[in-house]
Design brief:
Rossmann fold, 7-stranded parallel sheet, 11 helices, alpha/beta
Length: 315
């Protein structure tokens, strides 16, 4: 049985889709909080409720008693820990909340993994741990102790605790550093979803800086393929970048969105925001070699798929 925390969210619900399709028993732990409209998350998991092999547990990962009861009731063999307070900018406004959820919640799960002697622990980290790294592309071997946001710091702390629990208790652990994931069900405050909504509403798209900041935008299907590969190949302890390994500037992203949508965007120039970095760029050679990870969705193709979903749902 596989426990997926944050299984009603963007990445989590896509992962659960695939796990159920291949016959896995899945427990989804999600508190369905109001970081964004909980109705969106309930829509994400609507199809999962039809599976007898699926169990939804509405719980906060900080609720130690509830999680302990869950582990006592079910034979959980693997954990994919996706649940977290997400986003760089909100973490500047609520650093204590991010510390509490992302670090305490991860500690709760690692303690339970130790007690239950789980077979594998997969932790969702983030490209934000690289901070303002000037060496590109970012490699798993790079120094990452200079984060620039509370969110990034909590993800780095999560990686450190994962390694500590592996070292002390032998828990097979894989940390996955996701690079700017997008696609259907993307959270509404994330750039591509936000820009699309503003474009269709006829409102201005905010462009922070001069448009030269760049991100390694990674389509959800490519990310999920990497997560599944890591689940199928347990390691004592490993860290992998999961990205597209292509950088796209903010200006180019907006231009591509215009091409794919056929709509002319209005641009509102704004200053760079605290906590933002100028570039993210994944070196995925390790994941290619060890996980057979092969991202293949261009930003133009991925945006077309996202727009198709957006026009149907208008989420």
């Amino acid at each position: 049985m596989i426990l997926v925390t944050g299984g009603a969210g963007f990445i989590g619900s896509h992962l659960v889709d695939k796990l159920l399709d291949r016959g896995e028993e899945v427990i989804c732990v999600d508190d369905l909080n109001d970081f964004y409209d909980p109705a969106i998350k309930r829509a994400n998991i609507q199809g999962h409720l039809d599976f007898g092999s699926y169990t939804l547990v509405e719980s906060d990962i900080r609720d130690t008693d509830r999680l302990t009861e869950l582990f006592a009731r079910y034979d959980i063999r693997k954990i994919v820990h996706l649940a977290a307070r997400a986003g760089v900018r909100p973490s500047l406004e609520q650093p204590f909340l991010y510390e509490d959820v992302n670090i305490k919640g991860t500690m709760n799960l690692l303690e339970l993994a130790r007690s239950a002697k789980v077979e594998q622990f997969v932790f969702a980290s983030s490209s934000s741990v690289y901070g303002a790294n000037e060496k590109v592309p970012f490699s798993e071997e790079d120094r990452i102790d200079r984060t620039v946001s509370p969110y990034a710091a909590t993800k780095y702390a999560g990686e450190l605790m994962c390694h500590t629990y592996h070292h002390l208790y032998g828990i097979p652990t894989t940390c996955l550093r996701f690079f700017t994931v997008y696609g259907p069900r993307q959270r509404p405050e994330m750039a591509i979803h936000k820009f699309t909504r503003l474009l269709y509403e006829g409102n201005a798209i905010p462009m922070y800086g001069d448009g030269s900041t760049a991100r390694d935008y990674t389509y959800i299907d490519d990310i999920i393929a990497g997560v599944l590969a890591s689940l199928d190949r347990p390691f004592p302890f490993e860290i992998f970048n999961l990205g597209e390994s292509v950088t796209v500037s903010l200006r180019s992203l907006i231009d591509t969105l215009e091409q794919v949508s056929g709509r002319k965007p209005k641009i509102e120039q704004r200053p760079l925001q605290p906590g933002d970095v100028t570039i993210t760029y994944a070196d995925v050679s390790k994941a290619r070699l060890i996980l057979d990870y092969a991202p293949s969705t261009s930003v133009k193709s991925g945006l077309a798929l996202f727009l198709e979903w957006f026009e149907k749902t208008r989420c």
